[in-house]
UniProtKB/TrEMBL annotation:
Cross-referenced InterPro entries: Nicotian_synth, SAM-dependent_MTases_sf
Pfam families the record matches: NAS
Gene3D superfamilies: Vaccinia Virus protein VP39
Descriptive protein name: Nicotianamine synthase
Membrane-spanning ranges: none
GO BP terms: nicotianamine biosynthetic process
Keyword Transferase: yes
Keywords for this protein: S-adenosyl-L-methionine, Transferase
GO MF terms held by the record: nicotianamine synthase activity
Keyword Cytoplasm: no
Length: 277
């Protein structure tokens, strides 16, 4: 019987996952201001985005120790991402006479740019009618404190983007950043529960990876904006270590049809799934 050979890199990734889980649960400060958190998460993202063989990917995803910690790792990674957004929102908002080039200081700026480029290209290719809608606005649910996706989407589509988030502190920080960068004519913020608001004004609706209870949000979209294009950010392959993968079958069971998707790569962590009712 042929023995399966696992690379040292895959074994190292398992060790890194367990180390990150331990550090995230031990440290009180999960912001980039904590050098240990900064170093640990930078290393984790770097290792996750390294190319692996299919054998290595299966080994890591099915490894019992990885499976055991993954749920609580998602929780802590979500907290750390929130802290990172707050940290950079404050940093970028404090710059005197800020300009577009200052946004590049964000650690994952290039990742955001590449992701939004893929998303807009897919919309233009597969759903160009959505961008031709004369009054259609774009909604971004779960925009957070640092609405870079909304800023990039507005710039590339020439559409007004509405940021929706339940957290009042995140909304306040996002509004400050948008105002300071003189983007208020193109982007606005609504503090609301995505499961309760009306999506009637929006022709395209994005759901961030960290939005909880996505099915409930989608049911609300179907009720209030049944013709909208719904873009749900997900993760594939080993990127599932960082973000939970969207269950396509569960969304199709709600009456959605998957019409297009973007693919992740070594530069782009998320994939994006496009659905119509």
């Amino acid at each position: 019987m042929k023995q399966t050979v696992i690379s040292r890199t895959a074994a190292d990734l398992i060790e890194m996952i367990l180390k990150a889980h331990q550090v995230l649960h031990r440290e009180q400060d999960l912001s980039p201001g904590n050098p240990l958190i900064n170093e640990t998460l930078t290393q984790l993202v770097s290792k996750v985005c390294t190319p692996y063989t299919e054998t290595d990917i299966a080994y890591v995803l099915n490894h019992p120790k990885r499976c055991h910690v993954q749920s609580s790792l998602y929780e802590k990674l979500g907290e750390a991402e929130g802290e990172m957004e707050r940290y950079y929102a404050q940093l970028l908002s404090a710059i005197p006479q800020p300009g577009w080039h200052h946004l590049r200081q964000f650690l994952y700026w290039d990742n955001y740019v590449a992701l939004v480029n893929k998303e807009v290209e897919k919309i233009v290719t597969c759903h160009s009618e959505m961008l031709n809608h004369p009054d259609g606005e774009v909604a971004f649910v779960g925009a957070g404190s640092l609405p870079l996706s909304a800023i990039l989407l507005s710039r590339q589509t020439q559409r007004k983007v509405i940021c929706i988030d339940l957290d009042p502190d995140a909304c306040m920080r996002a509004e400050t950043l948008i105002r300071n960068y003189q983007l208020s004519h193109h982007i606005s913020v609504i503090q609301a529960d995505g499961r309760e608001i009306s999506y009637q004004p929006y022709s395209i609706i994005f759901l961030a990876s960290l939005v909880f209870k996505k099915a409930d949000v989608i049911r609300r979209i179907q009720k209030t904006a049944p013709r909208a294009l719904i873009a749900v950010r997900s993760a594939d392959g080993l990127h599932q270590i960082l973000y939970e993968q969207v269950n396509v079958r569960e969304l199709e069971a709600l009456g959605l049809s998957l019409t297009a998707r973007t693919e992740s790569d070594h530069k782009v962590i998320n994939s994006t799934l496009f659905f119509e009712s």
